[in-house]
Amino acid sequence: MIRIVLADDEDLIRGALAALLNLESDIEVVAQADDGVAAVRLAQEHRPDLAVFDLEMPGWDGLAAAHQLRTAELGIPVVLVTRHARPGVLKRALTEGVRGFVPKTTPASKLAEILRDVHAGGRYVDPEIAASALTAANCPLTARELELLRIAQHGGTINSIAEQAHLATGTVRNYLSSAMTKLGVQTRHEAARRAWEEGWI
Amino acid sequence: MIRIVLADDEDLIRGALAALLNLESDIEVVAQADDGVAAVRLAQEHRPDLAVFDLEMPGWDGLAAAHQLRTAELGIPVVLVTRHARPGVLKRALTEGVRGFVPKTTPASKLAEILRDVHAGGRYVDPEIAASALTAANCPLTARELELLRIAQHGGTINSIAEQAHLATGTVRNYLSSAMTKLGVQTRHEAARRAWEEGWI
DNA sequence: CAGCACTCATGACATCTGTCATGACTGACC
DNA sequence: GGTCAGTCATGACAGATGTCATGAGTGCTG
Question: Domain HTH luxR-type spans what residues (chains A, B) (predicted)?
Fold first, then answer.
């Protein structure tokens, strides 16, 4: 019996996934969490064979929760389920020791098999994401550039970005301009969008 | 037995929802579609008691598919399932005759009950979304303003927006400026974001 | 038919954005 | 200790953006 802690902030989806998994005779969802903090707490409580976390959750996202579990050294393999299969996120997940990375476009019939594999010591990365990640550009941006693009995502003026980052507006303009040049785009918004799509932010 | 056609482009989620629903003794998922076009085709083929469509799908989204079903006059009630509960989308859905509007944060245990209600002639709107929609600003923007904000969402320059819309750049600047004034924001990106959040685009 | 709202456009202008140059400072590395 | 990359900043400048005014055309409504 593979005992699983499942985490997803969307109740309906989480319940449906639990229903799907509980159809399997060798798989049991022993606890469900609706955010990353609860996920880690329940995993520590239940010591499951496997943790299945949705990537996008409030507070600690799936990746941060996986990091916390790893830090706690419980040896619980983590499988991340994600709507947006962004290559940079996959890289970060694998670096974090995540054993499975499953886009929501994966056939439902395949999930149990993937979880069994991971439980048996294997890893799972969707072939398409793997290919995409292998050909993906390495992130050419510095930490500061990424941070400013994160803020720029909200659409505000350069001045408001500078206020939020506690920098001079000239400094922000320089950093964003540098990022735009590296990415070959024309506006900071395109740069932010690109960085998001690649999974860098 | 309530016969359902289910549509969602994310295989895993769709399969999980089907598993959840098929646990109910009086509910049966008779067909599954992964986009709006297939959803409408399968609904016409199977003549289900109910259609359950995810809002965000490629090609026809859930709303457009509901519109197509309504146009076909098959009398199939539609329930939309959505990740982002945006008030403008709810309004449009209800105008389109959608009988149920279910955010993914809804407890899984509640879905079957909601579907039974709708099948019995009722309607379901999540109370929080209903409240949000009732207090939501009416869309103050013209069709043209909305269209330009849609294009502006991608982050491109004014010039590229003008090219895509087949308008002069001055015209685009005027429309976007007008939209920004109406929404009380400072950049076109903030305007686009706001319009999206309200469900206007 | 007049008024109104919307669409489309031009033009003037102030401000914002992006580019480029430059330089000071810091920490890591050889 | 010198070099390098990253961080932060200032300043100059050209072009993009946003604001405002204005006007022509269209279709709808009372």
Answer: 134-199
Interface size between A and B, measured as CB pairs under 8 A: 104
**How many independent structural domains does chain B possess?**
2
Q: Assess whether A77 and A99 both reside in one domain.
A: yes
Same domain, A110 and A157: no
Contact predicate B199/B87, CB 8 Å: yes
Does A82 share its domain with A157? no
Locate B133 and state its tokens.
Answer: 């929609």
Q: Facing residues of A124 across strands?
A: A100
Q: How many residues does chain B have?
A: 201
Give the amino acid at B111: L
Digit-by-digit pLDDT tens for chain B (201 residues) are 999 999 999 999 999 999 999 999 999 999 999 999 999 999 999 999 999 999 999 889 999 999 999 989 889 999 999 998 888 899 889 888 999 999 999 999 999 999 999 999 999 999 888 888 888 878 999 999 999 999 999 999 999 999 999 999 999 999 999 999 999 999 999 999 999 999 899
Contact assessment for residue A8 and residue A57, using Cβ atoms and an 8 Å cutoff: yes
| Domain span holding position A151 | 143-197
Same-domain status, B25 and B117:
yes
**Which of A11, A16, A20 lies nearest to residue B105, judging by beta carbons?**
A11
Q: Identify the sign of the CA torsion A29, A30, A33, A38.
A: negative
For residue B95, give the CATH number of its domain: 3.40.50.2300
